[in-house]
């Protein structure tokens, strides 16, 4: 932990309260690893002692950098987590059998009077092995500037260039997208009964105590209003979100009234 923290020491805010908050949180996480039994393994084996402690030593380096980023770039990291969770949920949905609909890659095309959503062949990408630097640049950065309250939320973050630097540091120490949600349990692991599930004990999100959950909900609610890279299509490739399928009744009523008012204004009534 110490070596990772030292590598970003020049980015630490010279504020005693901020430093104390960071150190206290890292100490709490270390204590949890020492005391909490490893899920799916013998109760006598704690997280910190699993596999001889090697796995935790490797993970704790990533946790230090992640917690530091969560404290100083809450908005950007919350957005990254929300986008990644959307990918995860859509992939899980597609993996279920016997569905009339599934998520597919899509794009919005401007045709004649409006926009049409067209589907493309393919599946929701598995981004587990992606570095979070690559995932952020490809799928997250655009949301930072178009969310409804982005101007207000971005004020809690420090310098954006410093965030880019820290993302590169994440790349250097090998933080992948699967580290955020937890690596998949493999057939040769101790807990075979949980094969395929996420190992939450080694999920950075499980230790993100300084990420604002209310902010993430707000980001998620706003993102739900956007057409994203993957939308729901039926087996024939028809998108579930179709133009003209739903119209508010008041809009139907307003059109004759508008024509009536125009006639009065133009003295043709």
What can you see in these coordinates?
- The chain is mainly α and 269 residues long.
- The chain is 49% helix and 8% strand.
- It has helices spanning 2-7, 16-35, 54-72, 74-95, 132-146, 150-153, 160-172, 177-181, 213-223, 249-265; strands at 101-111, 114-119, 230-234.
- It has a 3-stranded antiparallel β-sheet with strand order 2-1-3.
- The protein is globular and about 70 Å long.
- The mean pLDDT is 81.
Question: Quick check: average pLDDT?
Answer: 81
How many helices does DSSP assign? 10
- Biggest sheet: strand arrangement: 2-1-3
Alpha carbon gyration radius: 24 Å
| Helix proportion | 40-55%
Order of helices and strands: HHHHEEHHHHHEH
Unreliable stretches, pLDDT < 50, 5 or more residues?
none
User: Which range does the strand content fall in?
Assistant: 5-15%
Briefly note the structural class of the backbone: mainly alpha
Characterize the largest beta sheet: strand count, sense, and whether it forms a barrel: 3 strands, antiparallel
How many β-strands, per DSSP?
3
Give the end-to-end Cα distance, rounded to a whole number of Å: 80 Å
What would you call the shape? globular
Structural key phrases:
single chain; 269 residues; 3-stranded antiparallel β-sheet; 10 helices; 49% helix; 8% strand
Structure described in brief:
The protein is mostly helical and 269 residues long. The chain is built from ten helices and three strands, in the order H-H-H-H-E-E-H-H-H-H-H-E-H.
